[in-house]
Amino acid sequence: MAGARQRQRQARRRRNGLRNAAPRGQPDAGERVQLEGEEEVRCSNCDETHILICSHDGKLYECWTTAPDKISKPRLVKELGNHDIVQIACGDHHSMALSRGGNLFTWGRNTHGQLGVGSQDPLISKPQLVKGLKGIPLAQIAAGGAHSVVVSLSGAVYSWGKNNFGQLGLGHTKDRGRPAYVEALEHWKAVFISCGADHTAVLSKDGLVYTFGAGGAGQLGHNSTRNELTPRVVAELWGARVSQVACGRQHTLVYVPSLDKVYSFGSYQGQLESERKANQLIPLPINSPVDNGKFCQENMSQNVIKTTAEGKESNIGLLFTKRNSYPLKGIATLERKEVNAWISNSSSEHWETIRKNIRLILSSEACINGSFLDKRGKHFRTSKEISGVDMAKVLRFYKKISKNEAVYQEVQKEINNLLPSLSSSPVSPENFRVYLILPFLLQQQNASSFCTLELLAEAILRLQQRDLQTLECLWSNLETNHFENLVVIFKRVSLYSLIQLFSYDFSEQYPQEIEALQILQILYQVNSRAGFKLQDNHFYIPKMAEIVHHFHSMGISLALLIKYPCIFDMKHKLLIHFLECNSLHFNTHPRLSNIFQKHWIFPVRRDCLLHDVWDHLRNAKNNQFTRFLKVCFAGEDGQGVGPRRELFTLAARVLCDPQSGVFCHFPSRLVWFPRQASSHGDTFLLVGTLCGMALYNHCQTPFPFPRALFKKMQDVEPTLEDLEELIPAVGRNLKNILKEESEDKLESLEMTFVQMEEGGSVVELKKNGANILVTKQNRKEFVDLYVNYVLNESIRKPFEDFMRGFLRGCPAETWKVFLPVELQVVLLVHTNYDWDLLKKVSVTSRVAFCCYAQVVC
């Protein structure tokens, strides 16, 4: 029997060309070592031609079959000499090793991408880091014939390599050269995986077994020989609560502890009990696996584990542990006892060991992500909506380390070193945990923590847009108290960043962005979309009046700040707009000392008001709009701001008269742009110019515009509520369409995707819209298209003219700092703002602020 097995192995080696495989070229790179002791973990491929040995101290060795029953002496894998290896796995011709620091390395044949490094090289003899799994805390690794599978601490499964039978569980048969997330298992927390030659088995936390891949020998247990491209539960084992699973080349074994039985399915030809010849398509119990050696060791699983605490020593257990035992050691994560030891022993002779442990965990994205898992859920709790982070655990860790300055500084230093290496394109939702965890570990209010938070802000802003949106979604799902704490953290670092600008050499380079403020503005937008968990005042940065004045006095453009409107209250927004307008007015024409020369003298006649205004605007040069207006009504002696304010009020009144025919008027008493504007010439260009001039000159123009206009001016998409404000009856009807529950009633209206214009003309809202009925399935699309047509598409030309004029009439960009509703109030509502008082407030507090800035810096 033994001789037959040797001949089979020799024939298989010749057939597969193992003498040319990756392991054969590896000995030259290693160092010949004689291992001593029994504290080691061994792993080999099915033919036992290549063996990995992990010593008790984490060193990795490998050896090869040089002749039948002859094995070379172990050689140290030098490339991994600086890594503490905790898990190993062998495929037919490739190897895997997981380090305690959370890094996965692979080497060997790569003909199907089984190394997961994205390389096209068919053979890679030296261990390579699998960058696609960087940051994901792995719990277990497994190698199949030419495919690889791993499971994370959260229970997520990733696979790559050969996929001709669907053994990757991705729903197709294309090979993968990089790790891919097995989405089909997202709602079933995996705790263990095992690979056969071309199939894979996954054990869930609830004791269910999922198999996929090659099924020709019945090894999937689904009572068929069909291949499965996605994970499918083994129905015959439903309710059995399996605790162990192991795959051979073409068969699968599972252990049910409640029955103390091993069940098997798959190919038995020359492998299991000799009396069984046919392939077993469903799980059936087998006799003791140590029955006179009838169970062939060649088909034992490479990687197995007991996943339940009730597992007991028995003959059954020998089936899984006789060869290639796999006591799973995990990656390094924070443990409560260890952290307590850091705090209590930091001043003792243990400090160097403590520093080493801190460096191991806090310099590793994977170890950080695996240290604060929310373990309350029964399934995989990480997605684009759920972070899987236990924030209470994060805060407890921060509270502990903040009590010991040496430990805190060491933690902060390692985080600081880690941040530049964070990927701009994470491969999994699990990668985003680090962005949620780190801000709460850097809460100390000192320059060192602020600088590290600035680096974190830079790392967040390096994310691709789709990934940043995922992070924003995770932020929005934080509990309100945690979200508020996050806002406070970035408010503090934003204030620090602003104060640092006062010592900046602007002659060399002008900063285009302030990263911490960008994050704060993004958090404000997240807060808005989430229904305003926090009121606006939670985002206001203190001492902004003094900061704005300081910027202004140093000659720093206030345009740098208007990108972040969330940090200002209304008073500060008015101040920043006032200062910028004044700066443009007095600095654009420095050679004109005469006050009348610095102003734009604007003579008009009351009986020809609009004619005179249009005439001035059409003939004006662009630089004239930077001057403040000095309005003179013909035959009157009025001086100051009174005539200027009156000019804009009278002009708006004339333009909004229905007899003028300029605007469309609605029962809501609001006006809107006409849908056919070709006959109006440059009217809306001039109207926009007039509105811009009013804002620049600190005046109001009481046009009864709806809020939709001010949203459009700030690039905010108008909504159904905005249409309802303008045309209440239409808005209510559209809302009723969205609420209607009866399909028959909705179809009886016989509405189609068209818009009826005045005069009976019809506009299709989409291609062939006249032939598309509005139903419950497409009514949301209909309403969105209707709103878009009325508030956007139908008035595109007049609105574009209006905006060109507005930007000409208001050369100061600080109007962008106002929210749409604020811009509506400032421009339309007659409110007397005490500009002089605002300026005095900023001047009187400047000295106190300078002292504060010196302290912070």
Describe the protein.
- With 857 residues, the chain is α+β, with helices and mostly antiparallel strands.
- Among the domains are: 2-321, Methylamine Dehydrogenase, Chain H, CATH 2.130.10; 336-539, Serine Threonine Protein Phosphatase 5, Tetratricopeptide repeat; 720-791, Hect, E3 ligase catalytic domain (2-Layer Sandwich).
- It has 28 helices and 28 strands.
- The strands form 8 sheets. Strands 1, 2, 3, 4, 5 and 6 form a 6-stranded antiparallel beta sheet that branches.
- Helix 20 (707-713) packs across helix 26 (820-828).
- It is elongated.
- The N and C termini lie far apart (80 Å).
- Residues 4-34, 270-276, 288-326 and 841-857 have low confidence and may be disordered.
- InterPro entries: HECT_dom, Hect_E3_ubiquitin_ligase, RCC1-like_dom, RCC1/BLIP-II, Reg_chr_condens, Ub-ligase/GTPase-reg.
- Residues 1-17 have a biased composition (Basic residues).
- RCC repeats lie at residues 58-101, 102-154, 155-206, 207-258.
- This is HECT domain-containing protein.
- It comes from Pavo cristatus.
Quaternary structure: single chain
Average residue pLDDT: 82
Radius of gyration: 36 Å
Our count of helices gives: 28
CATH topology tier name of the domain at 2-321: Methylamine Dehydrogenase, Chain H
Write the CATH homologous superfamily of the domain at 2-321. Answer: Regulator of chromosome condensation 1/beta-lactamase-inhibitor protein II
**Percent of residues in β-strands:** 15-25%
Q: What fraction, in percent, of the residue positions are helical?
A: 25-40%
Organism: Pavo cristatus
Coiled coil: 720-759
Region (Disordered): 1-33
Biased composition (Basic residues): 1-17
